[in-house]
Specification:
Blueprint: E1 6-11, E2 14-19, H1 30-45, E3 51-56, E4 60-62, H2 67-72, H3 76-85, H4 93-96, E5 102-106, E6 109-111, H5 115-120, E7 123-127, E8 131-133, H6 145-150, H7 156-165, E9 171-172, H8 173-179, E10 184-186, H9 192-204, H10 208-221, H11 226-239, H12 244-255
Parallel strand pairs: 2-3, 3-5, 4-6, 5-7, 6-8, 7-10
Antiparallel strand pairs: 1-2, 8-9
Helix pairs in contact: 10-11
Protein name: Enoyl-CoA hydratase/carnithine racemase
GO molecular function, one term: catalytic activity
Pfam families: ECH_1 (PF00378)
Length: about 260
């Protein structure tokens, strides 16, 4: 499929989903929202893609809803409202239930709805020039879904500060690292995509079936109490028993060769 607002690529076993509206800081208009559902689904269904990197072209990562479109398109806000009320937020990997590992590679500014993609990624890398801010309250909107999701990754007070101060304060990449929002800072910034590809290739060397089961188990733990989470995780563990990868893994290790994993 061809995309107007995104760039979708395969680099070996790594799929890249790249925001591609650099002239408006990759703000998410209706077209991008629709294309994101298609792109995530396309990469998730491709058996050759084992890891997905979410990145951006231009000087900004993602700045959330295209406020100019909302202000000038009579149907823009109503359409967005309808999708939220129906809990149909299929523009992010988590809401679509993507069980392939997702790496977010954040450069420049990440604002508002852009925080969806940080909260929903499995691993977040940020360029040293990355900055994070949540301007919802500064444009008369409630900060809720993205910031609630971020509370799974970082201290509540830091999330509240970002949500309540709005566009008048930005969080640096170093502060985001200290708070656990991201796991690595890449410096210089122009190495960000290279670093994301390197990390994705390491992950892609592992069993796709085991990666998917592990991701389901660990994300599922955030939805449950300890006992229920452990029981659900145990079900994922035993559910993989008997899969060909469980035989291939030890055999490849003993033979000192790369394993030949089965696709999902």
């Amino acid at each position: 499929m061809s995309y107007q607002t995104l760039q979708v690529e395969r680099r070996g076993r790594v799929g890249w989903l790249i925001f591609n509206r650099p002239d408006v800081r990759n703000a998410m208009n209706n077209a991008m929202r629709d294309e994101l559902r298609e792109a995530w689904t396309e990469l998730a269904a491709d058996p050759e893609v084992r890891v997905i990197v979410n990145a951006a072209n231009g000087k900004a990562f993602q700045t959330g809803a295209d406020v100019r479109e909302l202000a000038t398109d009579g149907q823009g806000m109503e359409r967005y409202r309808a999708s939220v009320e129906a809990w149909d937020l299929g523009f992010t990997s988590w809401h679509l239930g993507i069980d392939k590992p997702v790496i977010a590679a954040v450069n420049g500014i990440c604002a508002g709805g852009g925080l969806h993609f940080v909260a929903d990624a499995d691993i977040v890398l940020a360029a040293s020039d990355a900055q994070f801010t949540d301007p919802h309250v500064s444009v008369g909107q409630t900060s809720a879904i993205e910031t609630i999701a971020l509370m799974r990754k970082m201290p509540a007070e830091a999330v509240l500060r970002m949500a309540l101060v709005g566009r008048y304060e930005r969080m640096s990449a170093q502060r985001a690292l200290d708070l656990g929002m991201i796991s690595e800072i890449v410096d210089p910034p122009d190495r960000l995509h290279e670093a994301a590809q390197d990390l994705a290739e390491k992950i892609a060397r592992n069993s796709p079936a085991a990666l998917a089961a592990t991701k389901r188990a660990l994300w599922g733990a955030l939805e449950s109490g300890l006992t229920d989470a452990c029981r659900a995780g145990a079900a994922e563990l035993t559910g993989l028993w008997g899969h060909p990868d469980q035989t291939e893994g030890p055999a490849a290790f003993a033979a000192k060769r790369e394993p030949d994993w089965k696709t999902l």
